[in-house]
Amino acid sequence: MLGKIAAQQAEDEARSTLFERRIKELDVRYILYYIVCVRHGVKTESLTNQVYKVLKQQIGSGHFRPGERIYEQVLAQRMRISRTPIREALLKLERDGLVICNSRRSYNVRRLSVADVKEIYQILGILESSVAGLVAGQITPDDVELLRRYNARMEAASNESDLPAFGAWNRKFHDVFLSKFGNRTMCELCDSVRQQLYNFPVSRASLKEWIKKSVREHSEIIRLAETQDGKGLEEYFRHTHWSEERNLEYIEKAYDRDGDAAVPA
Q1: What CATH number matches the domain at 114-254, 1.20.120.530, 2.60.120.330, 1.20.120.450, 3.40.980.10?
Q2: Residues 39, 41, 45, 46, Cα dihedral to 10°
Q3: pLDDT tens for residues 68-109?
């Protein structure tokens, strides 16, 4: 029993040391920003949001690997702040589905596998297709212009293989339909589920091709929206845009089956 405890302690210490090395490069940038802005009275966002954004970016870039343990206390020590904003930031990341809390006062980066992505597509296919079909008659020329503008931004992001930027404009695109439905919970649910596709690192091999395919599909969605074709929109969202079968080739190339190797090339 003592041997097992000692082995576990050694493992935890090794992971803690690795974690400290990983956040050293964050430390300097964060502390300089904190000293310049906060200490000199410049109005800034909360410490919680600052920590949240830094950790979210690091998870998305693959700096923290899927399954890696994140220690609340180590983060607080390195950033030289209290554990409260660290804890609150980690709780926000947990709500986003980016980390999983365990019983050892630490978190693990979630593994997003091919199976997880297929489930995301299934959920969005059911929800967004229903919404698009119901609100088609409410789409105005101004809405169509917004959709075109957002899709142009996504095309620019696809040329750079910029997945986070693509995801941000994609959210605006889909929210044109969701906002017409007038159900805040539905909008937040779809946004939260969809955002998981852009929060985790993916293989670059098929990324550009995949998001360009999405831009082409958005062009068809815009055409259907302009004619207020509710049935056409519902069918296209369900059986093409969010079809796991039609996107399976790209999903399997971008996301590892077990959520381990989904990191940028």
Answers
A1: 1.20.120.530
A2: 50
A3: 899 888 888 888 889 899 999 999 999 888 899 987 678 999
Pick the CATH number of 2-109 from 1.20.1560.10, 3.10.180.10, 3.40.1010.20, 1.10.10.10: 1.10.10.10
pLDDT given at position 3:
55
The CA angle 134-136-137, to the nearest 5 degrees, is 100
pLDDT tens for 145-158 read: 999 999 999 999 99
Strand extents, DSSP E, the chain: 69-71, 99-101, 106-109
> Which residues have CB under 8 Å from 219's CB, separation 6+?
151
- Per-residue DSSP letter, 182: T
Side-chain half-sphere exposure of 132, counting CA atoms within 13 A: 29
Spatial separation of the C-alpha atoms in residues 134 and 234, rounded to whole Å? 8
The maximal CA–CA distance of the chain, rounded, in angstroms, is 72
Q: If you average pLDDT over residues 132-151, what whole number do you get?
A: 98
In the numeric block, which tokens belong to residue 7? Answer: 């082995």
**pTM over the 0.85 mark:** no
Q: d(Cα 63, Cα 77) in Å, to the nearest integer?
A: 19
DSSP 196-211: HHHHS---STTHHHHH
Strand-pairing partners, residue 107, are 70, 101
